[in-house]
Write a structure and sequence with these properties.
Rossmann fold; eight-stranded mixed beta sheet; globular; 11 helices; Rna Polymerase Sigma Factor, Chain: A; alpha/beta; homodimer
Chain lengths: 399, 399
């Protein structure tokens, strides 16, 4: 039975694997001889190819940002940013041609550590080079070339996606009109790096990791990846979001009832919903995501700092950029709190760039950027409507 | 060669193991037939036994709160609260008789999971019952009986130690004059519980855990305990403290220098000082602390909520208490932030108790309660001077 798909969905989508033959020289000095990128697009590219939007994904995201892959699977969840992408949604597929790809080093179809190394006939594993945000953006620019897109109407991303947006504005100033940077930071804090290191230690200390060659042993570091993801989830949810999600039933409610009725376990079994939730989330993730990719992307995050080539002055990094900026943060995001977004904004202002900044009141923490929060959705819609108006025949010709 | 010990140190101290023959009925309904508590004391008990202070330790603390155990070891660190305990220090050993014990379930000499179960001749391991704060305080009251102390001049503790102080005030209202509750919370938040669950999963998913019977296998869950402690350390340090500790040299400084000179590892080796610091701290801890005790104490924390017997109204829990209160919090503590301390204060006020509250500006996060921060030390000294004045012959007789 075919599923019922709402009218504001992009519907059934089919990803395409695009092959690149040219060598890619990486920030590390290493070379990737050839690679594939898994890509999904929504909407139609207009005649002058001016209506293209690039969506950049975060740590655990991929190319599947909207719609469904399977017409029959009733339980399938839509793409990770489905609340924003579709006809009449903020990233409106009636107006824009939207491109999303699984980044290089990923594990959803693009070349990454779990891909077969043609030289050995085995997965790259730990031999896969570490990729930086700059490398990603370079590979995305080649994808734009292949799609015939000289200039994106907008490059958009949340969290690590927002870092790619900044790198686009700096590395390719003439290739985007608008940069939408959501729930991001100009670089990681020591605390962010510390959490990443816990995640990496969790994975690499798992005996099933086999120094990254677990594919050869027909296993994977399930426990390590589960722990890494549990730590991640705590980072993505605000304390408040956890209280709202689990508080009433789990902490005050049933905890209290159980304590009074003597029903607490008094064992190491799960007593609180938050524990089983985290464990479930961690276990599910660990069966779906490649551990080497997780390691790689935490390093990509740690290494991000576009100011390093500019005497550690981020404003200098932005000086040559030509696009307009929208920066959005969320009040309870404690991974990349609003002050980190304000750092970006202040440096943009110092570089005399045109920037709009919005801090959204939301209880959901870092995860808020993925959620249909009314004021956030309205803000995106309103900004993107302006971007679309520039595409109107007159404006498009004038620009 | 004997070490040089400063004049405000309690000097060389010798812990004593005190045996308890009476059965202890626990909150869980289980029974501990007999047990030992490892105890350290500093200063002299006065004639009317009115000058005794009980110090309650936190997750990784023990009975050794001040001074040194070894006259010859030049590299030995003093007890964990040495900055507060000693002649002329806030908890002044010229005025007070100070008692500190390793709590039941601990791993520093008191009966705990690593102790030998007389019934089996093997370590208790996972058969050791889960202990609550209420159970601890019950065992501490028995220790007070044995020492002939009817009423403590003060019961004092930070973090989980502060939770024991609250329980003392509620369970034994006539047995303490002052309650000093530092960097604590009325109960854990969902986020606190989530971090504890990550720590537990780290330990129990380590193949060397052997369901808690690792003693029998002549091993211990080194990696799991290391990870648990790394997560703990991130909780204990503020983001600001990390930035101060590692920022200049590790994030902006050498990171930048390395990036520019191409010296970043581009591998999964340690790039940042914060990574090696955490790993070092985790590894050191895991070789010194018992994993089953760590599990046990995280559950003790999760289960703490003195309001459960009072319709979840903490103020009602405090109504019968007779002592005066000092509550202290630290501005950058994100484990138990100032608002958690204010919850305690507000409930004490609602219960019409006499309470002083102090929020200390400090960059060090939760760890601040262990550190010689001038305003904090002065506040403790000033409060404890008043407590000591009550002990003066006239006042002591009048009370």
């Amino acid at each position: 039975m075919a599923k019922t798909i709402s009218s504001d969905s992009v519907g059934i989508v089919t990803p395409q694997l695009i092959h690149f033959d040219e060598r890619l020289e990486l920030r590390s000095g290493r070379i990737i001889e050839q690679y594939d990128l898994m890509v999904e697009t929504y909407g139609e590219l207009n005649a002058d190819k001016s209506n293209a939007i690039l969506i950049c994904h975060a740590l655990s995201g991929d190319h599947h940002a909207a719609g469904y892959h399977d017409a029959d699977n009733q339980r399938e969840k839509p793409g990770w940013w489905d609340c924003c992408i579709g006809p009449s949604k903020p990233f409106d597929t009636k107006k824009f041609f939207i491109v999303c790809l699984n980044n290089l080093g990923g594990c959803a179809g693009s070349t990454g550590p779990s891909s077969i190394d043609p030289k050995t006939g085995k997965p790259f594993g730990p031999d896969f080079p570490i990729i930086t945000v700059r490398d990603w953006v370079k590979s995305q620019a080649r994808l734009a070339d292949k799609l015939g897109i000289d200039k994106w109407a907008a490059v958009i991303g949340g969290s690590l996606g927002g870092m790619q947006v900044m790198r686009w504005a700096i590395s390719y100033p003439n290739r985007l009109r608008h940069a939408v940077i959501i729930a991001a930071a100009p670089k990681l804090s020591a605390q962010n790096i510390a959490f990443n290191e816990v995640a990496r230690q969790s994975i690499t200390s798992d005996p099933d990791f086999h120094e990254g060659r677990y594919y050869d042993f027909d296993t994977y570091p399930k426990r390590g990846l589960m722990l890494a993801r549990m730590v991640g989830h705590i980072n993505y949810l605000s304390d408040r979001a956890m209280r709202d999600k689990f508080g009433k039933d789990a902490i005050e409610g049933s905890f209290g009832r159980d304590l009074r009725s003597g029903k607490l376990n008094f064992s190491y079994d799960v007593d609180f919903q938050v524990e089983s939730y985290l464990k479930y989330k961690g276990e599910t993730f660990s069966s779906q995501f490649d551990a080497n990719t997780y390691l790689l992307i935490t390093k990509t995050l740690d290494y991000f700092d576009p100011s390093v080539d500019y005497d550690f002055d981020l404003s200098k990094a932005f000086v040559e950029s030509q696009c307009k900026y929208l920066v959005i943060s969320f009040s309870t995001d404690w991974r990349f709190p609003p002050e980190r977004s304000r750092e970006i904004v202040n440096n943009l202002l110092k570089a005399e760039k045109q920037v709009s900044y919005l801090e959204i009141e939301a209880d959901q923490g870092h995860d808020a950027f993925l959620l249909p929060i009314p004021r956030y959705i309205e803000a995106l819609r309103s900004y993107m409507d302006c971007v679309a108006e520039e595409l109107a025949p007159g404006a498009a010709n004038a620009s």
